[in-house]
Amino acid sequence: MHSTLGSQILTLFYLKVFGDIIDQTGSLGEAVEVFSKKRAIEAKKLVSISRELDRPGALGFVTFILPIILDAIFHKSFPKIFSPNVITMLQRDDLTFKQVARKKRFDRIGQVLLLSGGGWCIYKASKFALVSLARALGQRTSTVTAIPAALIAGGTILKNSLPFLVRGMAPADALNKSNSKLAGS
Question: Quick one: CA torsion of 11, 17, 21, 27, rounded to 10 degrees?
């Protein structure tokens, strides 16, 4: 995923790190062991990140697709606060996998806080508007809530019924039409 120049720089960096470890330990075998332990943390993080990106079904949506969408929205809206999506972050040469995981964890916390705070504000504003409307109309809040709910339900039923309200349509034709819709679903 790294660019060619980035890969070369990274390779030189790891060679220097490995050379320094050989100088410290004095033994190639011990140097390999120390270097492997240092790199194990990064390898573990990369495996962890890749597993989150490869889950099936609804869990895959929640752990991969939804974060990509949220990252796009938040990074575009607040680029100085939120980083780009994890795939873009993994391509950066200046970040380790551990740093990417940490940045994305902080992004998720910030996104959850902003979304839940926004949801709470919408809830409170809606409740205030509902109570104010009910007082102004001299009705209970349940009555004011029930009217739009009934209109939405009625509109949905009417919309779904319109294909069957054809002049001259026999009941068997309506049944065929409903069966074909069910089979096509």
Answer: 20
pLDDT digits (tens, 9 = 90+) for 105-138: 999 999 999 999 999 999 999 999 989 989 998 9
- The number of residues making up the chain comes to 185
Specify if 96 maps to a domain: yes
Asked whether residue 121 is assigned to any structural domain, the reply reads yes
**Cβ contact 10:2 at 8 Å:** yes
Q: Tens digits of per-residue pLDDT, 154-184?
A: 999 888 777 777 777 666 665 566 555 444 4
Q: Could you tell me the CA-to-CA distances from 14 to 3, 8, 18, 28, 119 in Å, in that order?
A: 16, 10, 6, 15, 47
Distance CA 74, CA 82 (A): 6
Number of domains in the chain: 1
Could you tell me where the DSSP H helices lie in 2-65?
4-25, 28-52, 57-60
In a domain, 149, yes or no: no
